Recover the amino acids of this structure.
């Protein structure tokens, strides 16, 4: 039997050869054109972000400020208005605000494209105040003294630390005692918290409250706060006319006076 002719062999080989030609990588000219397009696109993006007038800081809205004014926040933030949005260091802005305005507990500087850097501020809230030279120092829930004001905030108890030189003071220090007072103030039953006028600290284990109506609560330390709060609520209901309450040992409470 005769083998395939030369023409038939050429016809058979033409398919694979054509397929091989179709799979050849692009030539050098195609690669050059592609790279040039990418470079032009990158240059265009760079110019848009840094060189154009479209993506620059024009507005700095402030939200969350209560005691602070927007002007105070803007001055401390020192946002570079007119600069390219992409070049603004938001971390540096946040750091400046926390350093310049201790009343700020947290802040977030947020890019709002195409032209704004928003400042979201959360201020500290006073839990206690201390009297100092005729003014009042505000203390927040973390025990941080963050602002001095001429008028006491309404409804905020006065903190009095009268710890004499003692083993408790040497061991814990004044700052720790202040934090314990803050801890106690934050754990009071709502009705008692609203009626508390003074929180007195004599030692780590001796914290007391002065309430309206010349009533006094011996709280003890800041430990077992929930149990003490429940016991105090029950004790006040059971002896509504009492002037003195002792929940320093919540399993053995006491009340007296009328």
């Amino acid at each position: 039997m005769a083998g395939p002719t030369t023409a038939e062999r050429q016809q058979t080989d033409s398919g694979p050869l054509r397929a091989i030609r179709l799979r050849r990588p692009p030539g050098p000219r195609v690669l050059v054109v592609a790279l040039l397009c990418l470079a032009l696109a990158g240059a265009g993006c760079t110019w848009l972000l840094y060189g154009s007038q479209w993506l620059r800081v024009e507005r700095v809205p402030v939200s969350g400020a209560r005691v602070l004014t927007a002007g105070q926040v803007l001055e401390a933030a020192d946002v570079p208005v007119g600069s390219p949005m992409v070049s603004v260091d938001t971390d540096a802005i946040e750091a400046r605000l926390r350093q310049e305005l201790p009343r700020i507990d947290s802040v977030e500087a947020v890019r709002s494209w195409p032209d704004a850097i928003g400042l979201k501020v959360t201020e500290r809230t006073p839990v206690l105040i201390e009297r100092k030279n005729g003014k009042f120092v505000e203390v927040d829930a973390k025990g941080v003294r963050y602002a001095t004001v001429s008028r006491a905030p309404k409804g905020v108890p006065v903190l009095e630390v009268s710890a004499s030189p003692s083993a408790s003071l040497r061991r814990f220090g004044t700052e720790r005692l202040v934090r314990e007072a803050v801890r106690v103030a934050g754990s009071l039953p709502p009705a008692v918290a609203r009626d508390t006028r003074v929180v007195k600290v004599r030692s780590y284990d001796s914290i007391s409250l002065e309430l309206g109506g010349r009533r006094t609560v011996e709280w003890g330390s800041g430990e077992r706060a929930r149990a003490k709060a429940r016991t105090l609520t029950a004790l006040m209901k059971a002896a509504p006319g009492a002037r003195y309450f002792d929940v320093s040992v919540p399993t053995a409470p006491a009340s007296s006076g009328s």
Observations:
- Helices lie at 6-22, 28-51, 70-77, 90-100, 167-187, 190-195, 225-238.
